[in-house]
Amino acid sequence: MNLLQVHKINFKIEKIVYLRKILKLGINFLLKMINFIEKPGKILFITKSIRVFAYGFLSIALPFYLTDEGYNALFVGIFITIGILSSVIYNIFVSKYTEKIGRKKTLQIFSIFMILSSIFFLINNFISILIAAIFGVISVTGTETGPFLSIEQSALTKFTSETRRTLVFSIYNFLGYASSALGSLFSGIPSYFVSGILSLKILIIIYGLIGLLLFLFYSSLKDSLEIKSVKRNYKISNETKKVIIKLSLLFSIDAFGGGFIIQSILSLWFKMHFNMDIEAQSLLFFAGGIITAISFFLAERISRKIGLLNTMVFTHLPSNVFLILVAFSPNIILAITFLLLRQSLSQMDVPTRQSYMMAIVKPEERTAVGAITNIPRSISQAASPYLSTYSISISLFYAPFLISGTLKIIYDILIFITFRKVKPPEEK
Predict the structure, then answer these.
(1) 4 in a domain, yes or no?
(2) Fewer C-beta neighbours within 10 Å, C or N terminus of the chain?
C-alpha cells in the first residue's frame, strides 16, 4: 500500500468521524431549540429529519444507479418525471381523504410505500423501476413537496402559537435541509467499503429501512395529530378557493422552473459536464444543504422585520440571478461558487411561504390547502426534468439554469403583485 492510498483511507475515516460529530452537535443544538413545542410536534421534527435524510442520499444515488445499470440520461428524466407526477396523485388523495381516514393512518400508508419501493428497485428491471417511481413516495429533489409534507405542515400548527408559527416552520425546514445535507454526505460513504453497484444497493436498502422507522414513529402518535372538530363533509370556503387558485397558478410557475435544477438533475449535470464522481458530489451537496439550512433561521428573523411576503420575494430574486450565472460558468469552481451563493438565499422563501399560506386560511382548511397547492406544483415540476435531461444529453449544459432562473424571477414578481395586500394575522 503506497502513501497516497494511506492518505485516502485516512481521509475517508476522518469524513465518517466528522459526520458523527456533526450529528451529535446538531442533535444537542436542536434539543435546546425545540423545547417550546409539544411532544407530537417534536416527533414530526424527527420524522422530517430521517425522511429527508433518506431523500438526500437517494436523489444523488439514483442517477448513478440507473446509469450504471445501463439506463440512459433520457430514461433518468422519464423516471424523475414519473416520480414527481406520482406525488400529484398522493396529494389529491391527501386533500380529499386524510381528514376522513386520519392523519396518522395516512402517514403510515406512505411509510409502507417507501419500504415497498426499495424492494422494487432491487428487483431491477424496467417494469419494477417504473413501479418504484410510481409507488415509492420518492423525492428526487433532495427535499419534498409530497404527501408527508402536506400532512405534517398542517399538523404542526396544532402544537405552537401563531407568534411562533414561522419559527416552527423555520426549524422544520432547517431540519429538512440539514438532514438532506447529511444524506448527501452519506451517499458517498458506502463506496468506501464496497465498490460499484453494491454500494448503491446498500443505500436503497437503507431507504426501505427508514420507511419502516417512519412507520414506527407515526404509530406512536396515537390520535394527537387529528382535528376532532372537523366534519366529514366539510367544504373549503369560496374565499379560500380563490386564494388556492391564485397560489396554485403562481406556484406552478416556480415549480416548473425549479424542475430544471432539482438535485437529481444537478447530480447528473455535474457528472456529465464536469465528470464529478459521487464522493465529490456528496461533499458539494452537503455543503449546499448546510448553507441552506442555516438560512432558514435568518428567514425567520428577517420576516419579523419586513413581513413574510417581502422575505419570500426579496431573498428569492437575487438567488435566481446567481442561478443564471451558473449557466455561464466556464469552469467547475465558478459553477460551484454560484450554486452555493444561490443556496444561501434560494430557500428562505420556504418556511415563510408555508407560514404565510397556513396563516391566511382557517385551521380546518390547512391540510387540504397544503395538499391542493402542492398538486399543480408537482404537475408543473414533472414537465421540466425531461427537458432538462434532454438538453444535458445534447450538451446544452447552460439551458437548465438559464430557463429555471428566468421563470423563477417571473414568479417572484407576480406573487408580490398579487398578494402584497394580503396580510397574515400577526402583521395586521
Answers:
(1) no
(2) C
Q: Could you give phi then psi for residue 314, rounded to 5 degrees? A: -80, -10
Res 341: pLDDT: 94
- In a domain, residue 131? The reply is yes
Look up residue 14 and give its three cell numbers: 476522518
Q: How many CA atoms lie within 13 A of 317 on its CB side?
A: 11
Residues 290/414, Cβ–Cβ less than 8 Å: no
- Summarised one tens digit per residue, pLDDT across range 27-85 is 566 656 666 677 888 889 889 999 999 998 888 888 888 888 888 878 888 888 888 78
Its domain, for residue 215, covers 18-224+237-420
Q: What does the alpha-carbon distance between residue 346 and residue 350 come to, in Å, rounded to a whole number? A: 9
Alpha-carbon gap, residue 403 to 409, rounded angstroms: 10
Burial 307-346, CB ≥16 within 10 A → b, else e: bbbbbbbbbbbbbbebbbbbbebeeeeebbebbebbbbbb
Counting every residue written for the chain, the total comes to 428
Q: What is the chain's percent helix, strand, coil content, to nearest 5? A: 80, 0, 20
The answer to whether residue 10 sits within a structural domain is no
| Closest listed residue to residue 119, CA positions, set 131, 110, 107 | 131
Q: Are 211 and 111 in contact (CB under 8 A)?
A: yes
Asked whether residue 291 is assigned to any structural domain, the reply reads yes
Q: Which residue has better confidence, 255 or 166?
A: 255
- How many beta carbons lie within 10 A of that of residue 356, not counting itself? 26
* Nearest residue to 415 (alpha-carbon basis) of 252, 236, 238: 252
On whether the CB atoms of residues 63 and 268 are closer than 8 A, the answer is yes
Tell me, what's the pLDDT at 223? 80
In three-state secondary structure terms, 1 is: coil
Q: What's the number of domains the chain is made of? A: 1
What pTM value is reported for the model? 0.70
The C-alpha atoms of residue 288 and residue 205 are separated, in whole angstroms, by 25
CA atoms 396, 401, 404, 410: torsion sign? negative
Supply the CATH number for residue 284's domain.
1.20.1250.20
- Output 87 or 218, whichever has higher pLDDT: 218
> Could you give the CA distance from residue 75 to residue 87 in angstroms, rounded to a whole number?
19
